[in-house]
Specification:
The complex is a heterodimer.
Chain A: E1 4-10, E2 13-19, H1 25-32, E3 51-54, E4 57-60, E5 73-75, H2 88-95, H3 105-118, H4 124-130, H5 142-156
Parallel strand pairs in A: 1-5
Antiparallel strand pairs in A: 1-2, 3-4, 3-5
Chain B: H1 21-25, E1 41-47, E2 53-59, H2 61-64, E3 69-74, H3 75-79, E4 85-87, E5 93-95, E6 101-102, E7 108-114, H4 117-126, E8 128-133, H5 140-143, E9 162-169, H6 171-180, E10 183-194, E11 203-209, E12 214-219, H7 224-235, E13 245-248, H8 264-276, E14 280-283, H9 286-292, E15 295-307, E16 313-323, E17 352-360, E18 367-369, H10 377-395, H11 399-406, E19 415-416, E20 422-423, H12 428-439, H13 441-453, E21 457-466, E22 478-479, E23 482-483, E24 486-492, E25 498-502, H14 511-523, E26 530-534, H15 551-578, E27 585-588, E28 591-594, E29 597-603, H16 604-613, E30 624-629, E31 638-647, E32 654-664, H17 671-690, E33 722-725, H18 743-760, H19 774-783
The chains are: A alpha+beta, B alpha+beta.
């Protein structure tokens, strides 16, 4: 299959690559760039394990072709930590035991990154709706909600 | 229980933050699909569109014409090596790839090996298979009719679809009590087929080194050591030898029982790697995972409970059809084909019970594995908790009062149940009372009465479950003959740092943290200086793995015992260093000191160094120990859950207003992790109670084969769980712990169903099978003449 050149900025670094038009963004990230923190859980865009932030919006990278990301800027879980300091969301998940097997966690974090930019002081119900496109089979969500609240507070206080 | 160690040491009772989190939070976990080897090939599987059909022809020519497709493997290819069938963990047989017929929709029919994931998928599309459909049996009751087509024609003497009959208990005594009973209740309870649906699907990377003859398989398995032995037994004749098989279970994205069995995809990937000498990756997609991997439950239960008008329960009688699909590929201990279903007398002091289960073949995927529960315990708990509630409502007694009246009393432990289990410890009344206090039970009852008078639908449901976990004592528990011990191997390094390895495998439970806390508790090493490893069969001691809440009861005990062996030696070394008699030494976490002279002390770190640099004459150098722990009994965690629901009369929608969960898992290693396990377990109880079910139409087509229609609870449906605890230590476990990973999944569904039925009882509703969808409730309301 003929390949198409694309340029995608991932975690602040521009990557040029020739890709098949049918290559999913999640496979581009995981297999072409070897950024394996973004996971695949369902193929039908229900589970959200593959969530990344593209141009500020949380998107499911299993349902986007790599060529659709041409010229765009993407943040993955690997891009959250800055200068050796965990993002408040990562810290929140750690402090509040917001993860168990860790498989849904990158998607949960990336949904949170986009969400907290639009709502810096959410209530629990707003958080629950924000993560309703991200399935977690381990935690029962209670501590994920707490982790978001932890991060929101830290970010309001100027943590990030 | 107040912790015995300081927070810096971080032994039992401390909510130590998890040691596994830093890698997961950075996207640096190593799950099986993250494994990437040079020259790796990709395997994808062609699956059957039919539930039962003869394979007339497989044409691979178009697939082979695709550039990058290297091979298409069929059952006939595997037949040459006698690898087309494999044994199941229940000593039944299962096809790896079929030679002549398929037995369920989505069954593996052929496998495409290609240079790329996408090309392999192209190859799958291009394989052309000519089928001749056969009559399909999806209903186990119809499967037992005399004119039902016989499914397992591969078994020469098989004349029906009946797999096995199993019964337990005293039939005569039970029947006698029923004939004498003042009141009996009877109910048909169907516990449907569901799927664990861990967010990570199953898969493997198999890599065979032709020169060294070594096979390494990274695979999503909860039981790597047992898998190694199974591979050696199944494929010994083609040259795989157990010392040259290395199973690596990397980070696992949830297991819940679904990653115990050996699936055909693993075997085909191994065969492909052995044949090509190249690494081969096989990763399921979600549809394959839901449609073909082992399912849970599918129990058709008829239960009867006998008692007196004053609410005294006397006897339980159960008959069950167990739908196992086309093969019994459950993962039960071999002596118990219905698992531990005979813990079904639950938390109650019954005089007699009798339970019968018949296993049946149908045209569905194989299994009967667990869904986050210890071998059919959810089925048992659901049955007894529904029946107890039914009895309470039938005789007009408060459901809590009936439970309190019939609970096994604290002074009766150790308690021999009517079905021969020896319950280790419990205080069921205390747990229920705490749950009632927390939820405000009496006020809720008043509110309910007022609302009912106004025509509003509100229900209160209780579940007072007793679990049975930690399999198990070798006298009764084995899988394929392998006794169900588990193991710990602990090595203390000269600088006072520790590596501890186990035969279990965490799938999110946090073993790297909790096992380290056990070492900290026993030996006083700070938790940060203990590295825990599991899942690599080349380095970890042999164990049966993590499922059935057995890690803390079995491997956790092994850890404590191994630590105590080390401590015994450390005491001798300390006595030598302090020039004291070892009997004159006292221990406090982290050091030995001479009685009466606390400043004459040696820390565990000093002792560690001395074990390699200045050990007593005549003593072996080093400081390490191994323990293979054979538990003397199972452990019996318990709890009481209370669920409060409000039901919308117009839509039938169930709103869980409150859910209070009081658990008792004995002594707790890490309270934060225990609470997290309960939150997750409750949510995996909510799912099957209200949303999750896998159904088939009469042609055997799966109706919930993706996340489009197999509905996992999201954060929106999931209530804000309220948890609390009582603590009744296990008397036989070295740490007094019992295990907790599955309690909530086992106990929660009955509380939810009991609440819904309680809300609708006055309308004539006696029972609703799970999942209780809004549609089911809406229809019941309409049938009862209720309008929104």
């Amino acid at each position: 299959m003929a390949k198409v050149p694309i340029k995608v900025t991932v975690n602040g670094e521009e990557h040029g690559s020739d890709v098949e038009p049918r290559l999913l963004l999640v496979h581009f990230l995981r297999e072409t760039l070897r950024l394996t923190g973004t996971h695949i859980g369902c193929d039908t865009s229900h589970c959200g394990a593959c969530t990344v932030v593209m141009d500020g919006r949380a998107v499911k990278s299993c349902t986007i072709f790599a060529i659709q990301a041409d010229g765009r800027s993407i943040t993955t879980v690997e891009g959250l930590e800055q200068d050796g300091k965990l993002h408040p969301l990562q810290d929140g998940f750690f402090q509040e035991h917001g993860l168990q097997c860790g498989f849904c966690t990158p998607g949960m974090l990336m949904t949170g990154l986009a969400f907290l930019k639009t709502n810096s002081d959410p209530n629990d119900d707003e958080i629950r709706h924000a993560i309703s496109g991200n399935l977690c089979r381990c935690t029962g969500y209670v501590n994920i909600v707490k982790a978001y609240q932890y991060a929101a507070q830290k970010m309001r206080e100027g943590g990030a | 229980m107040a912790p015995k160690t300081s927070p810096e040491i971080g032994g039992m009772g401390h909510s130590v933050k998890r040691k596994e989190d830093p890698r997961f939070l950075r996207g640096l976990g190593n799950y099986v699909d993250d494994v990437n080897l040079p020259g790796m090939l990709y395997l994808d599987i062609v699956r059957s569109p039919y539930a039962h059909a003869t394979i007339k022809n497989i044409d691979i020519s178009k697939a082979m014409a695709i550039p990058g497709v290297l091979a298409v493997i069929t059952g006939k290819d595997l037949e040459k090596y006698n690898l087309h069938w494999m044994p199941t963990l229940m000593s039944d047989t299962q096809m790896v790839l079929p030679v002549d017929k398929v037995m369920y929709q989505a069954q593996e029919v052929a496998a495409v090996l290609a240079t790329d994931r996408y090309i392999a998928a192209d190859g799958v599309e291009a394989v052309e298979i000519d089928y001749d459909p056969l009559p399909v049996v999806v209903d186990p009751k119809k499967a037992l009719l005399p004119d039902a087509p016989i499914l397992r024609t591969d078994k020469k003497d098989k004349k029906d679809n009946h797999i096995w009959h199993w019964e337990w208990g005293n039939r005569e005594a039970t029947d006698q009590l029923f004939s004498e009973a003042e009141v009996t209740v009877k109910e048909d309870i169907y516990i449907p087929r569901i799927h664990v649906a861990s967010i990570e699907t199953c898969g493997c990377v198999a890599s065979f080194d032709k020169v060294r003859g070594k096979l390494t398989v990274w695979m999503t398995t909860q039981a790597p050591h047992a898998i190694r032995t199974v591979f050696a037994l199944v494929a010994g004749h083609v040259g795989l030898s157990e010392e040259k098989i290395q199973i690596i279970s990397p980070d696992i994205g949830g297991g819940f029982g679904g990653k115990v069995p050996v699936y055909p995809g693993y075997v085909i990937a191994v065969a492909a790697s052995v044949l090509t000498g190249k690494p081969v990756k096989w990763i399921e997609d979600r549809m394959e995972n839901l449609q073909a991997d082992s399912f849970a439950r599918d129990y058709h239960i008829t239960a009867e409970l006998a008692g007196k008008k004053d609410g005294t329960l006397t006897a339980l009688r159960i008959k069950t059809l167990a739908d196992h699909g086309y093969t019994d590929a459950a993962a039960n201990p071999s002596k118990f084909p219905a698992g531990l279903f005979h813990v079904c007398t639950g938390s109650y002091d019954l005089k007699a019970a009798h339970v019968e289960v018949d296993g049946v073949y149908t045209n569905k995927p194989p299994g009967g594995i667990a869904y986050r529960c210890s071998f059919r315990v959810t089925e048992a708990v659901h049955t007894i908790e529904r029946m107890a509630d039914l009895m309470a409502h039938e005789i007009g007694m408060d459901a809590a009062e009936l439970r309190m009246k019939n609970f096994i009393k604290p002074e009766q432990f150790p308690y021999k149940s009517a079905l021969d289990w020896e319950y280790d410890s419990g205080d069921y009344g205390a747990a229920l009372q705490l749950a009632m206090d927390r939820v405000g039970y009496n006020e809720l009852k008043k509110e309910q009465a007022e609302k009912r008078a106004r025509g509003e639908l509100m229900g209160i449901g209780i579940s007072s479950f007793t679990e049975i976990v930690g399999a198990g004592p070798s006298k009764h528990f084995d899988i394929l003959g392998l006794k169900m011990f588990d193991s710990a191997e602990i090595r203390v390094h000269p600088t006072g740092k520790v590596i501890a390895r186990f035969g279990t495998k965490s799938q999110g439970q946090g073993h790297e943290t909790t096992y380290a806390q056990i070492v900290a508790e026993e030996l006083g090493f700070p938790v940060d200086s203990v590295l825990v490893e599991e899942g690599d069969t080349d380095t970890a001691p042999y164990g049966l793995g993590t499922y059935a809440s057995r890690s803390t009861p079995v491997a956790g005990a092994a850890c404590a015992i191994a630590c105590r062996k080390i401590k015994d030696k450390a005491r001798k070394i300390a006595a030598y260093l302090l020039e004291a008699h070892e009997d004159d030494l006292e221990w406090e976490p982290g050091k030995f000191y001479v009685k009466g002279s606390p400043d004459r002390a040696k820390t565990i770190q000093e002792i560690s160094l001395a074990a390699y640099t200045n050990h007593p004459p005549g003593m072996e150098a080093g400081l390490e120990a191994v323990n293979y722990y054979d538990p003397p009994n199972l452990t019996y965690p318990f709890g009481s859950y209370i669920c409060v629901v409000d039901i919308d009369k117009g839509t039938g929608e169930i709103k869980i207003r409150r859910f209070v969960a009081v658990d008792d898992c004995g002594n707790i290693i890490n309270p934060m992790i225990v609470e997290g396990q309960i939150h997750g377990g409750l949510t995996m109880g909510l799912g099957p109670a209200l949303y999750e079910e896998i159904q088939y139409d009469e042609s055997g087509n799966i109706l919930q084969g993706s996340f489009m229609n197999y509905l996992l609870p999201t954060a929106v449906e999931t209530p804000n769980w309220e948890t609390d605890k009582t603590c009744t230590p296990s008397p036989h476990h070295p740490l007094g712990a019992k295990g907790v990973g599955e309690s909530a999944t086992v106990g929660a569904p009955a509380a939810i169903v009991n609440a819904v039925v309680d809300a609708l009882w006055h309308l004539g509703v006696r029972h609703i099978d799970i999942p209780i969808t809004s549609a089911k409730v809406w229809k019941l309301l309409r049938d009862a003449g209720v309008r929104g």
